[in-house]
């Protein structure tokens, strides 16, 4: 049974990309500053040759990609927007939901608020807890804000001006840069994220909503994927995870960091295929 909506400011559906034609339905949710298409290669591999093994939906979360922006951040509203979108895509059907980082939090809140919609859950390298602040993203946010959009002449110019030494991180962040005619803009709602980061320990994006504490635990199967080299999941997080999701099975990918599905795509694909195909 679903809980009442968290009153998102828009009833517009989120932007999605469909991959695959038959089989179980799987929704993929990305992390902060990501887009649904970040899961494209994983979804193609999971859906199999000709897309016959699974029907995947790659979702742009609110304030990201081509989805609508909101005036304020709320994990509950994000989860409700995903629920609305999945229900519209396949009325009356249930989904396996896969979420990484921020998308993992949204997926967990979705399962707790709309358990009838979620057949099973995969949470990638995040725990149901507050992480304090967005300090780890502060440098990225400052660099994005400092890029002189009005002076850019090309994407190559933007790449040259963007002072991020890690080429993978630079490409990930600059995927949010879009050109409309002769003007450049950030596709992600950068002002909203920057405003949340300014709250320091009060960050809602880094936090965990107290509202879910009054909800019943999610009774479906949960695969909890951790990066062996990532600090996002600790041994102490297991108790809290099992309180909300008693049927959790943890799977640690050795050598992988926070972006587990990027560091070890073959391992993640194999784990997803097994988990989605398993009998409840």
UniProtKB/TrEMBL annotation:
Stored InterPro entries: AB_hydrolase_1, AB_hydrolase_fold
Cited SUPFAM superfamilies: alpha/beta-Hydrolases
Domain AB hydrolase-1: residue ranges: 28-271
Organism: Terracoccus luteus
Keywords from the UniProt entry: Hydrolase
Pfam families on file: Abhydrolase_6
Source lineage: Bacteria, Bacillati, Actinomycetota, Actinomycetes, Micrococcales
Top-level lineage group: Bacteria
Keyword Transcription: no
Protein name: Pimeloyl-ACP methyl ester carboxylesterase
An example molecular function term from Gene Ontology annotations: hydrolase activity
PANTHER family in UniProt: PROTEIN ABHD11
């Amino acid at each position: 049974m679903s809980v009442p909506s968290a009153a998102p400011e828009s009833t517009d559906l989120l932007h999605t990309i469909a991959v695959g034609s038959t089989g179980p339905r799987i929704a993929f949710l990305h992390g902060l500053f990501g887009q649904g298409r970040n899961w494209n290669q994983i979804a193609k591999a999971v859906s199999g040759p000709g897309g016959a093994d699974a029907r995947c939906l790659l979702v742009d979360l609110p304030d990201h990609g081509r989805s609508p922006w909101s005036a304020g951040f709320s994990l509950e509203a994000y989860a409700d927007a995903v629920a609305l979108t999945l229900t519209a895509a396949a009325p009356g059907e249930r989904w396996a939901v896969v979420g990484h980082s921020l998308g993992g939090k949204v997926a967990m809140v979705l399962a707790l608020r709309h358990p009838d919609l979620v057949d099973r859950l995969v949470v990638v390298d995040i725990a149901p807890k507050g992480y304090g602040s967005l300090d780890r993203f502060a440098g990225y946010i400052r660099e994005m804000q400092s890029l002189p959009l009005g002076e850019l002449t090309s994407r190559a110019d933007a790449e040259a001006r963007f002072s991020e030494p890690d080429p993978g991180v630079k490409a990930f962040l600059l995927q949010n840069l879009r050109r409309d005619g002769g003007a450049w803009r950030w596709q992600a709602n950068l002002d909203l994220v920057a405003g949340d980061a300014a709250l320091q320990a009060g960050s809602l994006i880094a936090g965990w909503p107290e509202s879910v504490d009054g909800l019943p635990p999610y009774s479906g199967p949960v695969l909890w994927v951790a990066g062996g080299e990532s600090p996002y999941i600790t041994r102490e997080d297991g108790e809290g995870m099992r309180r909300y999701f008693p049927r959790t099975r943890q799977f640690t990918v050795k050598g992988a960091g926070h972006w587990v599905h990027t560091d070890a795509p073959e391992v993640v694909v194999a784990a997803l295929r097994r988990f989605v195909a398993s009998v409840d």
